[in-house]
Structures are given as C-alpha cells and as structure tokens.
Amino acid sequence: MGEIIQVGMADYKLARPPDKLITAGLGSCIGICLLDPVSRIACMSHIMLPCSQDDKKSGNPGKYADTAIVAAIAAMKLMGANTGHLVAKIAGGAQMFHFSGSNDFFKIGERNALAVENNLEKNKINLLSKDIGGHVGRTIIFDPATGNLSIRTIKEGEKVI
Amino acid sequence: MNILKEQFDRISQLQLDVLREVANIGAGNAATALAAMINSEIKISLPQAKIMPFTDVPDFMGGAETHAVGIYFHVKGPVQASVLLVMPIEKAVQLLKMILGTGDISLTGSFSDLEYSALMELGNILSSSYLNALALFTELVFKPSPPALAIDMVGAILNTILGQYGEVSDMVLVMEAGFRKDNLDVVGNIFLLPEPATLDNIFTSLGVMV
Fold it and tell me: ipTM of this predicted complex?
C-alpha cells in the first residue's frame, strides 16, 4: 500500500505509484492533476486564483493557474517525467455561496476554470476529463497508477472521472 | 520577503491581546443576542486573535472536510474585513428547530426557503451584534454586506473568501470566538478576518499603533 500525499491550498505535490494524491475541500479552487502516462509520475496542484498578474507581490507559484501549471511541469521534469505528452484531469471551480444579486467576487470559480483550461492548452497538455462548476465542495484523490480521479462530495456522492 | 509579511511581523503581542479583548466584547454581545433568540444560556469560549498562513485556516475552522453552514459578510468602510459564521451542520439544524419550532430537518443540506431565511437572519443578528460592539469600542464604522450562505465542506466554503487574501499576502489575521450552549455543546464560531491594508486603521483607533 502506498502513501496518500496531502496537497494543501495553493500547493502542489508530486507522486508516483503506489502513492496517491489528495486535496480536501475544493470550492472555487481547482485541483489540477497532471500525469506522464509512461513514467506514471503525477503532480496535483490546488490553485486558488486565475492569474499571477493579479498578485500584489511575488507570491508562491502554487496559488495561480498560470504559474502552478508551469511549476508543476518543471517539477515533474526534474523527477524524470517526459513532459512532452502530459495528460490532465481537473475538478473544482464551484460557486459556493447563494447571494442575492450578481457579484463578480463570487464568480471566481468560473474564472479559475477558464484560466486552467487556457493554460493547459497553452502548455499543450491534453485535458482528458473535468468536473467543474456547480455549487458543491469536492475532495479529490488521484491515482497515478490508473489515472483515475475520484471525486467525493457531500451533496452528490462519489464519482470517478 | 514582502511588505505585507513585514507588516504582519511588526504586529506585537500587545496588539494581538487588544484584538483578543475586542473579539471578546463582540462575542459577548453576539452571545447575548443568540441567547435571547433561542431562550437558552449561551457561553463564549476564550476568544483568539492569531496570525497564520492562510493555508492553515481550514484546519483552524474545524477541518477542510467538515460539513458545516457558513454565513459570510463582507465588511466595508474604514475597516474592510470578512466575517464568517461557521456552524457544524447538526448544530445549525438544532438551532433551526429551536428558532422555528419545526420537527425534522434533513441533514443533507436541502433546506427549505424558510430555513435558509432563518439561517441568514440568525447570521445577520449574530454578526451585527458582534460588529456593533466592535464599532462602539473602536469608534469606527463597519458596513456589512447582506449575508451569503453556503452549506458544504468548510474548506470549500473558505476558498472564495481566502482567495481575495491570497492576492495580497500568504498570511491572514484571524479573530475567533466560539459559542457554547449548556457549557459544553459548541454551537458555532465567529471569525473576523481584517484585510491587511486596513489593520493600521484598527490599531490607530485602538491606540496601539506600532
């Protein structure tokens, strides 16, 4: 039995079989799972915001969709992955609050999802599947051995993408 | 490292003690309001004022996967802050039964419109009595937004709120106070997260400027 490696908010972690990666309580944040199908080296990031240009100072790369993907690729390469043919699965980007009137602040999930997809494309990563949006919190577990992404929610049960 | 990190480093123990006292007064006020609403004695736990990395906040609020009701207010004015009321789902249901006098309410988070309104009203009363005490004490104006409600994992509820702090800093200042019924039973916690840029306004009005 491998370990289950915890990925915190604004963080990213690497794993290879038999270890798995988990991040708990994704709301408007997005969990990005990258996998090299040959070496089975994987990376999970838990991003909070769409774009590092919004940063008021030099922050940590794991916080933003654009910088997290670049940092994850570099880290996977360092571990020996062939980053030329990475595949991705993503989940999160929900709108958690019921709020009267429209408020852009609460649409951060949508903006995160858009930024993640754009940046995957920019880095020529093939997006295999996604579970994005809605109004539910998600806990996700990625298994590099199978490439399965399990998604656990309180309101909508469990599924695998 | 960065300006805001230094700003947080400069905050002294004395300043945190003063904030803790402010949190105490606010929570006392809110507890009185809650006690009147459910006709039961409410005690507050020892309030806290802490500076922590924002990644530690979900654990501080009970764990990322804990099923809870979160009622959120965005405070504007000279002090910009987030106020979040977090109640474990079972406690929220208990409170609803006491307020509405209704029978079975499901735990799945599929509340009726009436129950949603009651929760938001509960949040309104608690947060405004909390902020009123702070306003009297600091002589500052706090303008809370209407309530926003989420019923889900604590971590997921927090994402959106912490996102706005993430843009300016890796650290947040969190003021916390817990409400207890019959001495033991935790009913919920109220959290106040001032935006880093407005901390100076709070400290100046409290007379504990660096």
Answer: 0.85
